[in-house]
Batch of 2 targets.
Target 1
Amino acid sequence: MTAPTQEETQVKEKSQISLTGIKPTGTPHLGNYLGAIKPALGLVENYKAFYFIADYHGLTTIRDKQEMKQHTYEVAATWLALGLDPNEVVFYRQSDIPEVFELTWVLSCFAGKGWLNRAHAYKSMADANSESGRDTDDGVNMGLYNYPVLMAADIILFNTNVVPVGQDQRQHLEMARDIANAFNYVYGDTLVPPDALILEDVATIPGLDGRKMSKSYGNTVELFAAPKQLRKQVMQIVTNSQTPEEPKNPDENNIFNIYKHFATPEQIAENRKKYTQGGVGYGDLKQELFELLDVTFSAPRERYNELMANKKEIDAILERGAATARPIARKTLGKVRRKIGID
């Protein structure tokens, strides 16, 4: 038997569905791009790819309606500006798919409370409350507690085969799989149990202070900051006290460890030489990083600003995506309703 050709392999993989949920959580930064956006956009090469803005998931923490709307538009504009092609993939708002919420209730009837008790987000909050002498469930809302069930419905509704997640989200994928299997155990082969696609080689970069870049640390470099603001952020990167004349170790340097993710191999080699030979100050190296980032994100920044100035275009794109997604959702939900004796 001959091995399948590359084209045959790709056709087989394209029959598989991937789904990526994007929570609206504020201004995107370089860490978001490398850790989530870039690898998730790459899925379109091998899968029939679905992407959605998880606005109802955001309700667990966002209570200001204008903030919710603004973050939703920012997320949509970010992904579109960075290469998401709505003609190639299905891109929609979670809130435009009401079938998600009916399926959430059905699946909650097959989700063990013991499973939800062990969910990372809930357990972390409950443990912190206990350690502080507060009631275990102090400040816990049912949205937070039921988060894994809503996530399972998002995934299962579209017959998803794989979901790209980091290790911190793997548990939620396992719960979604357990819930689908629990339903299938009672009603027969109905729902597709999803698999986690762990992106092991996802790049992480240091923030301005050397810790992992994160909004919670306040150490981010914004993706679409205007040049003047971008330069200001880059110039805040923490360095050691070595003089320009001294040779430096690029692998232990915050500037280089951002630079290397956006430069060509030739640029990386040349930049590395500057560190190891000495004779270059940190100010010059930061300027070089700024210029590289400014060039890299110039066109996406322009597209992002265009979209944010014309939110009707974003709405139209998301509405088209929902129009494609809803027939699939209705079909899955109809199958579930028939199995449980409601339809």
Target 2
Amino acid sequence: MAFELKDKIAPVDPLTRPEFQAAAAAVNPLGLLAALPGKWVGKGFNQIWRPFHGTSDRFLELNLTKETLEFSRSVGAIPNRGLLQPDIELAGIYYLQQVKDVLAGVGIHVEPGFWVTAPLTTNPAEPATVARMASIPHGTTVNAQGTAIAFSGRPTINPVSIRPFPIGSAPPLNTAVAFPPFNEANLSVPTTFRLPNPIPPSITQAMVNNPNSVLTAAIAGQTITHTTVLTISTKAPAAPPPPAAPNVGGGTDNIAFLQGGPAGPNADAAQMTAIFWIERVAAGPHGPAFLQLQYTQTVLLNFKRLSWPHVSVATLRKR
């Protein structure tokens, strides 16, 4: 690994939940995160609606990306002391994500952070969960919690829309394959408020209409024998969760410039949701079996009275 902690985390004094420690000793405490440690490399697609101070209030940036995502080995047992219930231990790994724009040849994203597993708890009454904590240099921190499941076979990757909607309302339904009513999202209409300019043939209208189509195209023809799904969000479900579903914690925090003042935000990162798929791809005529990591992530940027979906997707292979 390129980076590791000098000393693993461990409690200075024993936790008061020995039954949890005994259970954890029999299995990998990282659970369904266990396949992540290592270096993953690949490519993807990023689109972001940016606020524009001038003759337009919006600007659409489209990026073909090259990405490196590195995960450490386990950082050790992370003690969380309990008051309303006995203590728990988290298990975690830290990561460094670096994303480059292929056409411009510049870095566009650097993100250090942690993934952790949390055991079942009684107060609150929660099943086992996973969480991702991220720091973004633009001035945003993210804490997103959710679930991890595994099954045999290939993933189901649903469409995703970049269509903005009023702040505080639900995203519109059935718009994942229809571009927003703005010229910037219609690649057949020339505009100075879109990059790259001109649009290369490698960026298509289908990609803008549904960024997740880049993911489904990447796995077309592959035989995926096993999938682990990590689904996380910074916001709890709007309705009460069903039995055994987590009422997840988390949230986003932004510097003052992003939050803005009485006139509204400049570009407040209000919410993040993401799905990661760890896929086992069977050997084929062109090579041996390998591990593959795909993800789709949507950040809602609030400005000009709308929530603008900022969608990033990538397909990476483990080195």
